[in-house]
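Module 6 notes. Inverse folding takes a fixed backbone as the condition and produces residue identities as the prediction. Think of it as a translation problem where the source language is geometry and the target language is the twenty amino acids. Below is one complete input and output pair. Work through it position by position during the lab.
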């Protein structure tokens, strides 16, 4: 039997040539493909959402009769978005704004939701969560305000007297007491008393604090009353 001769082995120089060619041929095309791959990697990673904890200011819009005893606690928001969008939040603080009415209780619990956080215009991000989920606001239980003094004084005039005027000094006082009572008082009366005219001397008349309700006090507690008028007609 005749045996076929073994195949000739490939020269080592041919294998080295192919290896070298794989790294050296079409260098411009391969460099371009590598550059595009790097750019694509950066684009993909720039668009991948990231999350960041961002401080949020709670800004209550209070009725003029309300005064907070303590500033609101710190609020944090978990915000998701591209890194370049999250960077914008460093220059524009996030905020939650809430209107608080005059009839709010002295202790008010305000619920917070992610939708309450107002993102700045032009920021493409989403608020995923807020912490805490509620804030407790405590208002001053007493309130002070200035109100007008209302006269309950009766003037006894002699027959034929001209027009009689009355001046109160001061004509307004500060009242202090429970907020829900003080805010409902438009003016304070004097006690009921009688002054005869003519009388050029000032009279001290008490403020009728009993008519204001329990716990409400006035300062000053008295006003000066001066009667003015022309001489009696003949």
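Target side of the pair, the amino acids:
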């Amino acid at each position: 039997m005749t045996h076929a001769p073994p195949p000739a082995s490939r020269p080592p120089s041919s294998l080295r040539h192919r290896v070298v060619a794989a790294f050296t041929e079409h260098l411009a095309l391969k460099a371009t493909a590598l550059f595009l791959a790097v750019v694509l990697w950066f684009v993909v990673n720039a668009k991948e959402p990231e999350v960041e904890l961002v401080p949020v200011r709670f800004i209550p819009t209070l009725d003029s009769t309300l005064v907070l005893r303590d500033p609101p606690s710190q609020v944090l928001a978990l915000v998701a978005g591209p890194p370049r969008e999250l960077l914008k939040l460093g220059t524009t603080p996030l905020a939650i704004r809430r209107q608080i009415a005059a009839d709010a209780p002295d202790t008010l619990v305000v619920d917070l939701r992610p939708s309450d956080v107002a993102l700045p215009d032009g920021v493409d991000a989403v608020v995923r969560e807020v912490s805490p989920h509620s804030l407790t606001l405590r208002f001053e239980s007493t309130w002070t305000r200035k109100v007008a003094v209302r006269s309950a004084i009766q003037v006894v005039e002699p027959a034929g007297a001209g027009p009689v005027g009355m001046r109160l000094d001061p004509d307004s006082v500060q009242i202090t007491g429970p907020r829900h009572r003080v805010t409902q008082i438009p003016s304070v009366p004097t006690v009921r008393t009688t002054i005869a005219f003519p009388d050029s001397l000032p009279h001290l008349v008490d403020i009728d604090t009993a008519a204001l309700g329990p716990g409400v006090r006035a300062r000053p507690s008295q006003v000066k009353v001066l009667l003015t008028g022309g001489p009696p007609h003949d």
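Reference fact for the lab report: The chain has two domains: 47-138, 142-229.
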